[in-house]
Amino acid sequence: MKRTELNLTERRQIEDLLYRKVNVTEIARRINRHRATVYREIKRNFFKDDELPQLNGYYGMTAQRCAAERRARRRKLVRIPALREAVIDRLQEGWSPEQIAGRLKFEGHTTTVSHETIYSYVYSPDGQSQELARYLPDRRKKRKPRYARTARGMMFPPERSIHNRPEHIKTRDSFGAWEGDLMIFRREHGKTNVASLVERKTRYAVLFRNNDRSSNHFMARLMNVMEPLPQTARQSITFDRGIEFSSWRKLKPGIGTEAWFCDPQAPWQKGSVKNMNKRARRYLQRDTPISTLSDRDMKAICNRLNGTPRKCLGWRTPTKAFAEELRKLG
């Protein structure tokens, strides 16, 4: 059986080894735990007394008591039937755990609960036996740990960096190199957003409504939109490192399109699409209820953007420049 939480014996070993100035990596090896587990244990259960700082330190028994208190708080929905029933009733009404927790505090209940505790209960054996997860707005078979996310370096490896992008893309000499982004709107309008694409050489813009911010959904929609173009008209797309673009590996086998990525916190490196987004915001302000816009509405906005003469194109329109490049492809 896989161990999760440290026990008292292990905590006493950590206390003893820290007293002997053994480093955390070696402590982890000796108690057969990952060093991140030991780092986290020391940080969470470090005893601190502002009045008697000489007593500050890690103590096994104190750490065990703190851990037990945290477990008791997490079990609040098991220990208090009235609270549990109130939470389940509101889950069944379609409320999110965050809404339930916030409302309990607003109503001044003597006993409240955090949204993390509600999630823990929903995915616990008790919650699974009642199939509570089906009432969540975002349903999963199993909840991932709060911080167990794939590192961005693994999602967007160095070889896909914008600095490794071919020179002809940077100079805009070749046709078929795009930039991609998402335009986000007010939260009360739901998860619907607008995906924006710009072909770098001709500044031709494509906008389409996207009903979900999940990466798989976005990439599937993107490939459907791009697939009708000739292969040489969709050679590459440059994105920033947003989580929405983490399924980029589907592009190459799907439609033969390479993906490149800006540096972290450097979306300005895909300036063409950012500039186009500013133009599009004239018609798609942040409080726009995107779900009410039809494909015809989105097409009309694209036509307006692409029908405007551009100085960088010698006052041709993006529509004209894009059509000329397609004709060259035969």
UniProtKB/TrEMBL annotation:
The keyword Transmembrane does not apply. It holds the Pfam family HTH_38. Keywords: DNA recombination. GO terms for molecular function: nucleic acid binding; transposase activity. GO terms for cellular component: cytosol. Residues 162-326 form the Integrase catalytic domain. InterPro entries: Homeodomain-like_sf, Integrase_cat-core, IS30-like_HTH, RNaseH-like_sf, RNaseH_sf, Transposase-Integrase, Transposase_IS30-like. One of its GO terms (biological process) is transposition. Gene3D superfamilies: Ribonuclease H-like superfamily/Ribonuclease H. The keyword Zinc-finger does not apply. PANTHER family: TRANSPOSASE, TRANSPOSASE INSI FOR INSERTION SEQUENCE ELEMENT IS30A-RELATED. This is IS30 family transposase.
